[in-house]
Amino acid sequence: MNQAFVTSVPTAPMRTPMPVVRRKRPVEPEPAIKFPPRGATGPVHISTLLNPILEICHHPDRNKLLAKLFSEE
Q1: What is the pLDDT of residues 7-58, one digit of tens each?
Q2: Axis crossing angle, helix 62-69 with helix 46-58, rounded to the nearest 10
Q3: Would you call 60 helix, strand, or coil by DSSP?
Q4: Side-chain-facing half-sphere of 36: CA atoms under 13 Å
Q5: Is 64 left (phi over 0), alpha (psi -120 to 50) or beta?
């Protein structure tokens, strides 16, 4: 009796693909601080944005001024 052996690797069963879960994008709130416009020459330098805070930091009554700056009014 002639018998042949199967030497190939058996095929793996096909997996069902996982469904794609669509996540809602979080809504980003508008910034509370108004930044200066970009200007005609391009972006504004970071020192222009930090100058008001630096002036408050060097002021003798800085705690009161910082509280007023960051209050939600």
Answers
A1: 666 666 777 778 888 888 888 887 777 766 766 777 778 888 788 888 888 8
A2: 140
A3: coil
A4: 14
A5: alpha
Cβ neighbors of 37 (< 8 A, separation 6 or more) are 44
User: Helix/strand/coil (H, E, C) string of the chain?
Assistant: CCCCCCCCCCCCCCCCCCCCCCCCCCCCCCCCCCCCCCCCCCCCCHHHHHHHHHHHHHCCCHHHHHHHHCCCC
pTM here is 0.35
Only one residue has tokens 């052996």, namely 5
* Nearest to 70, CA basis, from 60, 58, 56, 59: 56
Contact in structure between 31 and 44 (CB atoms under 8 Å): no
